[in-house]
UniProtKB/TrEMBL annotation:
Lineage of origin: Eukaryota, Fungi, Fungi incertae sedis, Chytridiomycota, Chytridiomycota incertae sedis
Swiss-Prot/TrEMBL GO biological process terms: proteasome-mediated ubiquitin-dependent protein catabolic process; regulation of protein catabolic process
Keyword Coiled coil: yes
PROSITE patterns tied to this protein: PCI
InterPro entries tied to this protein: CSN3, PCI_dom, PSMD3_C, TPR-like_helical_dom_sf, TPR_PSMD3_N, WH_DNA-bd_sf
Family to which the UniProt record says this protein belongs: Belongs to the proteasome subunit S3 family.
Pfam families from the UniProt entry: PCI, Rpn3_C, TPR_PSMD3_N
Name assigned to this protein: PCI domain-containing protein
Annotated keywords: Coiled coil, Proteasome
SMART domains: PAM, PINT
Amino acid sequence: MVETRSSKAKKESAESGKKPQDTDKEAPVPMDVEKTEEEKKADNVAAVLADIKQNINLLERAVATLEARFTTRALRTTASIRKRLTPEILTQAINIYFPKDHAAKDALLKRVGKASDEMDVDQGEQKSDAKDGRGFLPEHEVYLSYLVLLYLHDQKDYQQGMQLVIELVDKVQALNRRTLDQLAGRLYFYFARFYELADKLAEARPVLLAAQRTATLRHDDDTQATILNLLLRNYLMFNLYDQADKLVSKATFPENASNNQMARHMYYLGRIKAIQLDYTASHRHLLQAVRKAPQSVASAGFQQAVNKLAIIVQLLMGEIPDRAIFRQPMLRKSLVPYLQITQAVRIGDLAKFQETLAQHGATFRADKTFTLILRLRHNVIKTGVRMISLSYSRISLRDICLKLQLDSEEDAEYIVAKAIRDGVIDATIDHEKGFMKSKENVDIYSTNEPQNAFHQRISFCLNLHNESVKALRFPLDIHRKELANATALREEERKLAKEIVDGEIGDDEDMGEDW
């Protein structure tokens, strides 16, 4: 039996080996490959339409329950849908969900590039989802128009996108529905974005100011936070720092804003405070912006901009940034000029500072940090004076002038005197003999420096704890359940007290009068 089985196996293997030779002429034709590509394309379209349908259902739940978290989930998944949008997918989505007689349907189809008679949608599916418009909400219309707006932005069709976003902003203002607040914030963002790409940013400012007042009156936190950041960006693009500071002092940023908007707001506050020479407040705002920003590749540009400004502000405060910042993968390449500036400030090398400034001046101007870097020249000189004070117990002003590459001995004497007055160095100047004499080093633990360092760290930890507590989310109407539980507990206590009283009376009667 074993031999027959092995022989059968050999025969089958031999026949199987002959089959490819016999059927070599029947190799797969290219039509099969085309079919697989079409199937993949159809599967992709079906997956995107399923995601859009899920977001449409989430918007319906948001309207029914008045819960903003469903709208947040829909907008969060829109980022993945955006990468896969095509004219065919948008055409099918519009024809599936828009009613036949809707006024905005044909306009959206034309912007996508499809006429109303070019339908690839199954008629049965279309009738089932968009029968007569009874289940079609304004949120559905705004969301589908928002998808078309994203497609126009990615295709760089800025003229059509500007026209569409103006119509959507007017429509959202006229509807005045609280369930549209988050969508309205996104629309205002792209409203300012299209105006910026068209180089008409100044024309958008009156519209944004009016929308900010309206959002404040309606207690629309999402739109209010978005428009406030857009106005600050608008002012800073034109270097209108005074107007931006007045806007920040008059307007209150909502506490319920998202982390993304909070991070942007902190970055703009850091820029304003840095220009106003308030480096401590600027550094605090920039640290909060870095902490609140998402740590992903998508936010690499924002992380680079914040860290560039934070490095310069930290240098202006007299501190040296941590070397680990320059080694991060997302920041390593973009922070090379700022690393050279940091090295020049750290060692007090004025020649290297001027060389780096001349070499990367265009980069600093593009980053809008050139003005702040010019202020670092005095810090470089102060660092050089500190290094000289630590190295020499006595040195002439002429040698200081040569080491720091100053113009005259009078300038060196003025700089050294200012450093002594600011507490940078502990030394004295002999004006008649023309030299500087350093005093002996004092133990730093006998000063207030450790106390100030501990105070700064404790304040940072306390602020972090307070912000974490504010960011906690609690279920809706949880206090009502607690009230119901408290009422039931109170009733049980009353019954228990009554039983105890009745039991005590019964025990007294049983024990008799002697007890």
